[in-house]
Design a protein that fits this description.
With about 260 residues, this protein is mostly helical. It contains eleven helices and no strands. Helix 6 crosses helix 9. It is globular.
């Protein structure tokens, strides 16, 4: 191996392999992982992390799909500006997005009272949708724009309703992009940190925030490493499942730029 090849190998070994191995080693040492898994609080946090990520993903898809359809299938004044504006929250730091939502809550009186959103699960779901809708627009919208419309037009000519065309023609052809966007959004929500801290509050902890709390506030690095190991295994499993689902959904249908 040449000297030029040793540089990236050394970089990966020092800044990737060693930190990951340190987390694994510390998480498995002295039964830290077993102790973490035996705690009822860990299971509660893990369950909350999963279901809030699933609910956030569903809400993001519900908001993003109409926008992806409009941008992919229609040419209207300001189309590019709208697409750029919808992507802006995604490129901003999550803490900035969370702070902006907090300001909105305060402006409209949603930070207290009977209609309080601040420090609730609803605020987390809303923030995740705002932050991740750009993923759906970019992945699904770009894929949608390249789908040939002839199959949909033929189904309409043969008497299929618009709803049936969407259900039996459009969505199956969009399946690879849908699965890809779903997995990515779910992973972003599952590993969310800034959003949980700014709008979720301490009463809605996730694995990510618990790792931070144990490492920085309690200085319990063994527990933090155990939680990090749980998160690592969960993320790898999610990526593996998402890859399999995306491959199964991939079809050989022709795609070309729609006129």
């Amino acid at each position: 191996m040449t000297a030029a090849g040793l540089v990236p190998v050394a970089f990966l070994a020092v800044f990737f392999a060693y930190p990951v191995w340190s987390i694994i080693d510390r998480g498995l040492a002295d039964g830290a992982l077993g102790d973490v898994l035996e705690r009822a609080a860990t299971l509660d946090v893990l369950w909350f992390t999963f279901w809030q990520a699933a609910a956030s993903t569903a809400l993001t898809l519900a908001v993003g799909m109409p926008a992806a359809w409009a941008i992919a299938r229609h040419d209207f004044p300001g189309r590019r500006a709208l697409r750029a504006a919808l992507i802006v929250p995604f490129v901003l730091p999550t803490l900035v997005v969370g702070a902006a939502l907090r300001a909105v809550f305060e402006r409209f009186g949603l930070d207290s009272g009977s209609f309080r959103l601040q420090n609730t699960v609803w605020a987390i779901l809303l923030a995740h949708a705002v932050f991740n809708v750009a993923v759906v627009i970019r992945i699904v919208g770009s894929y949608w724009a390249l789908l040939d419309r002839q199959a949909e037009e033929a189904a309409r000519v043969l008497g299929a309703s618009r709803l049936r065309v969407v259900r039996e023609v459009t969505l199956p052809r969009l399946a690879p992009a849908l699965w890809s966007a779903t997995v990515i959004v779910f992973l972003f929500c599952f590993t969310s940190f800034g959003v949980i801290l700014t709008v979720g509050g301490p009463g809605n902890p996730t694995i990510e925030t618990e790792i931070w709390r144990y490492a920085t506030q309690r200085t319990d690095f063994a527990t933090a490493a155990g939680l990090a190991l749980v998160q690592l295994v969960s993320v790898v499993a999610l990526v593996a499942v998402g890859t399999v689902l995306e491959r199964r959904a991939t079809t050989g249908g022709a795609r070309r730029a729609a006129p």
